[in-house]
Amino acid sequence: MEPARASSRSALALAALLGAAGVTHFAKPAPYDAIVPRALPGEPRTWTYASGVAELAVAAAVAAPKTRKLGGLVAAGLFAAVFPANVKMALDYRHRGPRAKAIAWGRLPLQVPLIIWALRVRRSAA
């Protein structure tokens, strides 16, 4: 596969991941509400919806070749920005079953490859 096609597929896969995550913020918001850090002002549902909108907007930016470079950078920032919610989830799940704990704690190191992926999409954008 030629490099341009591979980078386009990678970008579209990242856009699909972001888009699916964004949709779930609206379809099933309660789990997201639960991990909104308490230090943030306002209602958790507002943050859930705002982050869903952000994920959908970033997905669109990554999917479109003209905005892909900026979209990749913003996606990396978004993945870093949601890290505190993942930390809160891991701490909140300390007393849950092994599977739930594994999922919650597994999300923490997953942010690193997501950020790297987003930055690679940015670098490979035309």
TrEMBL record:
Keyword Membrane: yes
Protein name in UniProt: DoxX-like protein
Keyword line: Membrane, Signal, Transmembrane, Transmembrane helix
Transmembrane segments: 70-91, 103-121
Signal peptide per UniProt: 1-26
Keyword Transmembrane applies: yes
The organism of origin for this protein: Umezawaea endophytica
